[in-house]
């Protein structure tokens, strides 16, 4: 397994890390943002449009693909890469988060998470081994361990119980994952408790995983709590492995967490907001349905090479007001391009060893003061 996946830490600046994650389907420059292709499509965009934003790796959702079209059908269609036409690396989550956020009547035992499909009510038993089996059938390049996700706030006993189970399930996933061409990332849990985060990170770091994720965040805590928890967790993870903060976040969240040593992110925010007429810019989000844009000839951003910024704000507003499908397509492209370029700029700033200066300038542009690292 050694050598197939390898992370090179190239440079550090003010806590931020510049690296390259080598995979059999290509290199991923970090820090990186992964567009979310929940059911084998990044909503609204062709795969060429996704690639044109500069994305090097995309995400697929095990839970959704298990239910529809089914992992066996994906395998018969040649696997997730062939099915959706993406030749670069793909990361699949384990289904843990969706089971707990979407799966009605879910029940967790030591053996498995049992839940009912949100589509047809069918009963599904998701063991750690089955999660790996699904991710192998999908053929992703990076698989995630199945973890026991709980809602916050939760009692200390609930957090500890879920954490201990997540570690036992991570071991079972490691034993079941036997394909050298598929990396396996562990997921650190522990709620907002720094002691539990340290304990979980240390325990998982002693096991052979190709990367480590910080899970259980972006579930209702404040941004400051999220940043503090990410910071505590990365301090106890091995420097020579990539760190992935799951399901995060706003441009501000990305910059603050890069400053705390995170290398990889994913979030539906750029595409979901794009579908709702919200465009990210260096001056903060722009609501394109607003009347103020009616006769505005300017693009969303002057220097943006995306498909939307060939047009005026007035035209984009008209598309949304008329309910035309091109509006969501164009804004999804702009937002993914914005996230991708933000990561490119962050990488350049780390290379030039001026990450703090870069981060402060971006944060202030969006109207935030930087949160001091603890
Ligand atoms: Zn643009």
UniProtKB/TrEMBL annotation:
It comes from the Bacteria. Zn(2+) binds at residues 304, 306, 309, 334. The keyword DNA-binding does not apply. The active site is at 93 (proton acceptor), 266 (nucleophile). One of its GO terms (molecular function) is tRNA-guanosine(34) queuine transglycosylase activity. Binds 1 zinc ion per subunit. One of its GO terms (cellular component) is cytosol. It catalyses: 7-aminomethyl-7-carbaguanine + guanosine(34) in tRNA = 7-aminomethyl-7-carbaguanosine(34) in tRNA + guanine. Residues 247-253, 271-275 are annotated as: RNA binding. Residues 15-365 form the tRNA-guanine(15) transglycosylase-like domain. GO terms for biological process: tRNA queuosine(34) biosynthetic process. Substrate binds at residues 93-97, 147, 189, 216. It holds the Pfam family TGT. Pathway: tRNA modification; tRNA-queuosine biosynthesis. Its EC number is 2.4.2.29. Keywords: Glycosyltransferase, Metal-binding, Queuosine biosynthesis, Transferase, tRNA processing, Zinc. Homodimer. Within each dimer, one monomer is responsible for RNA recognition and catalysis, while the other monomer binds to the replacement base PreQ1. Catalyzes the base-exchange of a guanine (G) residue with the queuine precursor 7-aminomethyl-7-deazaguanine (PreQ1) at position 34 (anticodon wobble position) in tRNAs with GU(N) anticodons (tRNA-Asp, -Asn, -His and -Tyr). Catalysis occurs through a double-displacement mechanism. The nucleophile active site attacks the C1' of nucleotide 34 to detach the guanine base from the RNA, forming a covalent enzyme-RNA intermediate. The proton acceptor active site deprotonates the incoming PreQ1, allowing a nucleophilic attack on the C1' of the ribose to form the product. Belongs to the queuine tRNA-ribosyltransferase family. This is Queuine tRNA-ribosyltransferase. It comes from Allorhodopirellula solitaria. The lineage of its organism: Bacteria, Pseudomonadati, Planctomycetota, Planctomycetia, Pirellulales. The gene is tgt_1.
């Amino acid at each position: 397994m050694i050598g197939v996946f390898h992370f090179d830490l190239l440079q550090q600046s003010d806590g931020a890390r510049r690296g390259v994650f080598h995979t059999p389907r290509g290199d991923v420059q970090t820090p990186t943002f992964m567009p979310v292709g929940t059911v084998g499509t990044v909503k609204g965009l062709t795969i060429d449009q996704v690639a044109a934003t500069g994305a090097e790796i995309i995400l697929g959702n095990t839970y959704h693909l298990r239910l529809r079209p089914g992992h066996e059908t994906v395998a018969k269609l040649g696997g997730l890469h062939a099915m959706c036409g993406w030749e670069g690396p793909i990361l699949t989550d384990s289904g843990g988060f969706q089971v707990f956020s979407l799966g009605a009547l879910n029940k967790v035992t030591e053996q498995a998470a049992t839940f009912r499909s949100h589509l047809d009510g069918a009963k599904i038993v998701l063991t750690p081994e089955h999660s790996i089996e699904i991710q192998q059938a999908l053929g992703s390049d990076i698989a995630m361990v199945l973890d026991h996700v709980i809602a916050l706030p939760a009692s200390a006993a609930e957090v500890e119980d879920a954490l201990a189970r997540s570690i036992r399930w991570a071991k079972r996933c490691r034993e079941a994952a036997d394909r050298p061409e598929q990396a396996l990332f562990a997921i650190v849990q522990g709620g907002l408790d720094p002691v539990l985060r340290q304990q979980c990170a240390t325990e998982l770091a002693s096991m052979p995983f190709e990367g480590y994720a910080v899970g259980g965040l972006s579930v209702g805590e404040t941004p400051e709590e999220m940043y503090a928890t990410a910071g505590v967790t990365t301090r106890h993870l091995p420097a020579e492995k990539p760190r992935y903060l799951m399901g995060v976040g706003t441009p501000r969240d990305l910059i603050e967490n890069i400053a705390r040593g995170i290398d990889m992110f994913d979030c539906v925010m750029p595409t979901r907001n794009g579908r709702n007429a919200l465009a990210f810019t260096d001056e903060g989000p722009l609501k394109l349905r607003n009347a103020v844009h009616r006769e505005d000839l300017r693009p969303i951003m002057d220097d943006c090479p995306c498909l939307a910024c060939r047009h005026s704000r007035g035209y984009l507003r008209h598309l949304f007001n008329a309910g035309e499908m091109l509006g969501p397509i164009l804004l999804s492209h702009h937002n993914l391009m914005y996230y991708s370029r933000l990561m490119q700029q962050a990488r350049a700033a780390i290379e030039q060893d001026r990450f703090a200066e870069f981060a402060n300038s971006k944060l202030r542009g969006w109207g935030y003061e930087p949160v001091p690292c603890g």
